[in-house]
Amino acid sequence: MSFIETFAENLKTYDRKALLTEVHGSTLVPATGADLAALVARARGAIRAHGLKPGDRAVLLAPNGMQWVAADLALLFEGAIVVPMYARQDPRELVHMMHDCTPSVVLTATDDLAAAIGEQWPEAPLLTFDEAFAGQPVDEPPVARKPEDPVTIVYTSGSSGEPKGVVNTMANIDFMLPVTASALASMMGARDGDDRVFHYLPFCFSGSRVVLWTCLWRGNGLMASTDLENLAEELRAARPNYFLNVPMLLERIKNGVEAKIRERHKAIGWLWDAGRAAWARSEDGTAGRRDLLVLAAARRVLFSRIKDQIGPELACLICGSAPLGEDTQRWFMMLGIPVYQVYGLTETTAIVSMDQPPAVKPGWVGTPLNGVQTRIGEHDELLVRGANVFCGYWNKPEVTETAFVDGWFRTGDRCEVDAAGTVRIVGRAKNLLVPTSGHNVAPEPLEQRIIERIEGVEQAVVVGHGKPFLAALVTGVLDEDRLSASLDEINTDLPHYRRIRKFHLCDEPFTVENGLLTANRKLRRATIEQHFADRIEALYP
Q: Considering the domain 247-312+316-429, what is its CATH architecture?
């Protein structure tokens, strides 16, 4: 049975069970299998009446929610190749991708979204959710597909160039969902009932879609955020066992907690510092009796209370999109919240490797999934082969050809692999900086060190390609004197060619809205360097 057929069966099997719950502040709004099935049936009727045929491309443009899920399922059941896009992205960028994939229908959540697309593309084949969910119900089995048939096109973030449409097939998804379901079951251990899964990242991204689809495949409910500005209240209402994260959020939680601790009585600050040091010694086996007493006090007074504030029922956190720094991963472990890393790309159906507890190595991204092969190519580039690897880029055969070498997909990520097969991502090969000293420098480890070790830093971008030394662009709430002193401390154990000699403290953060981050919160390095070109040049008199 294909994954799409499994979805259709599960809507009937779990007709009274909440398969998708919208979280609105402190209020939970559930949609049962029967609720979703009714929405899917109406959307199928409207989509069919709109003229969509099996094999046509269909853009889905909407925020997370039960209607997004129902629209996605309706398109899948009708045999469409679904092209999910980020509803908050610039309409000009969205229309550029739409022209590339030539959709038969552009399904939008609201009239406003439809109007924004229509302004850039007057002939767009628009269909709003109001129209879609007022269709004549269609109650038929899903359209049959072959393993090699494309099922979705997901556009890459464009962090290092023009977005490309990654084509995933039925075989890609049919391979991935059982594997991720098994990995999650192993990660969570034996449990009574469903996992309480919360999700706040947009469903249009490959990793988010795999989380959603894995829950639907398992018949496990999922709770979806509806307001990214109100995550704290939503988390209190959802009380999840785990949820998928990007490093930026976990680093922000860490920085926020430590800032509040510094505002409290000096005794609390002392216990926090002493407790962290004692925990570190306990981890490396050098803790003495005094350390164990201090650690017990820190756990009782601080660590357990902070954990409860983050999530009282959290069994773990999962982190993807970019490698999480070792210090941040250990920080959450200290609180009693293990963080499991997952690594992959859109081209690998979201996942290549995952942490497999208890064999977790902080700062590394786990071992390859069962059925996925990896090896190291030229310049330490990670190469991947397996049923998870995409079939090609939409309408780009030449680009597809260059993405492979001897049948192995070139990830573009530089890596290390230890004797156990655990992978560590060093950085993007194309991001390498070569200052005039001639040394190759990966900026990502340096940026991670700045973010983790300097309190108040939110984002960091290291620059210096073709320059006499490295410098950094930094965002956050901190003063320049403290930033300068902290960078001096970081530089002490670095070789001369990796030291950050100067910096610029930016007045504005890097965001999706100002074009300095991609839709899935990755740095647009070339755009950032162009945006701050004058400030960067001023660092090199």
A: 3-Layer(aba) Sandwich (3.40)
